[in-house]
Amino acid sequence: MKVIEIKNLTKKFKTGYGIFDINIEVKAGEVYGYLGPNGSGKSTTIRHIMGYLKPQAGSAHIFGKDAWLESNLIQNDLGYLPGEIAFPEYNSGIDFIKMIFNLREQTNWDYVEELINYWEFDPNVKIKKMSKGMKQKVGLVIAFMHKPKLLVLDEPTNGLDPLMQEKFISLILKEKAAGTTVLMSSHIFAEIEKTCDKVAIIKSGRIISDVEMNKLKLKSDRKYEIEFVDSKVLKEYLYKNSKTKHLYKIPYDQVDDFFEKLKKFNIKDFNEIPFSLEEYFLDFYKKEEKQGGIKNV
């Protein structure tokens, strides 16, 4: 079942910026990462999913319903965390949480308290006096507390310290195991890499890459750092080198050939460098600037 289905979605603003021919499919139970720099179109896409913006062309459907025309039928099953949080400042955190709880006609207050304890903050503080991280935690509680079928999270760990970022990853993995669908934009590559089934990269309002994480890892170049016993060094596949360390970059389908050739050399130290989504993203952006086009893996 397609929980999110976006087809040729286009919205151009007077400035010339916007999103153009966006196509996204997210199936039930998938976690979908949406990567791109500030101003690339991530939040504009998400606002269409939420029904806050009307498309100029194309469509966005959530649970098979038109996100613009039928947004009122979608909200009960959707949890949303905006990229820019603007809560009523003179409420306390707990009062605001209770207000949303009552508006949704929820009955599971025990779970709300569980989330508050999980995020380790005092909800009785006035929102005006809260730090950015505390406001983010209030937003996360509100997004998760009605146990929605779909979570739409725009920069969800913005303002959180590294410990809380790890707790966020654990919570997403728990939701994933329970079958919750998640669409998440983020600048934190680790949380995308550890949680997502698919990743799209958006640049200047257009999706330039749409990949499955497992296939991406399988088809990515392998990198190895090697220190040799003597001056005899394998020249082929050499990517960078220093006085003692030599970095090799090998296409995934030539790894066997690399190791066969490596047998002829005396090795002192050998390390495999793990796949990095951040490196892939930065390399892809550089290549895209030269070549252009869309890539599917």
Automatic annotation (TrEMBL):
> SMART domains of this UniProt entry?
AAA
Output the CDD domains linked to this UniProt entry.
ABC_DR_subfamily_A
Which Pfam families does the protein's record reference? Answer: ABC_tran (PF00005)
Q: Name one GO molecular function term.
A: ATP binding
Record has Isomerase as a keyword: no
Record-stated family: Belongs to the ABC transporter superfamily.
Recorded protein name is: ABC transporter ATP-binding protein
The organism is: Williamsoniiplasma somnilux
Give the taxonomic lineage as stored in the record: Bacteria, Bacillati, Mycoplasmatota, Mollicutes, Entomoplasmatales
